[in-house]
């Protein structure tokens, strides 16, 4: 069952040039490929975890960090490129946010932020895994501190944003 917003988004896609729609299609295909890569890394992480006596034990956290990095980062990069290319986003089918499409500069900003966030997330996780594998504990400490501070900032901004939204709703409603 299609909603009005989904139909509106489909109409928006239909008016785009053919090349843009083709690139959009291949970006969606690459999301599936990234899922296959993620599953392959998961299998490798499971293998080194199960047969830990036959591999370097420091390899185990590396593969699990790499799995964590690949479980969302490629999709975030592809979705970010898609948002920038289309200059639009379909309504999100989950969450409490507004069920509307996003078109224009806001979609491009969301895409750029998705790409930036995905790259930072990936660099931190792969860096922590590499530092663990090579026993570079000074590097690991620095990366873990950066990681913890970024998570604290994101959580604080999310909580403050939710409080501000609720406060503004209460002020606006009679």
Task: Please describe the topology of this protein.
Layout: H1 4-14, H2 18-50, H3 59-70, H4 73-86, E1 88-89, E2 102-103, H5 105-133, H6 137-172
Antiparallel strand pairs: 1-2
What does this molecule look like?
- The protein has 174 residues and is mostly helical.
- 78% of the residues lie in helices and 2% in strands.
- It has helices at 4-14, 18-50, 59-70, 73-86, 105-133, 137-172; strands at residues 88-89, 102-103.
- It has a two-stranded antiparallel ribbon with strand order 1-2.
- The protein starts with a helix and ends with a helix.
In DSSP terms (H or I, runs of 4 or more residues), the helix count works out at 6
Question: Could you say which overall geometry the principal axes of the C-alpha atoms support?
Answer: globular
Strand-and-helix sequence, N→C?
HHHHEEHH
The separation of the N and C termini measures 35 Å
Give the radius of gyration: 20 Å
Task: Find the structural class using helix and strand composition.
Answer: mainly alpha
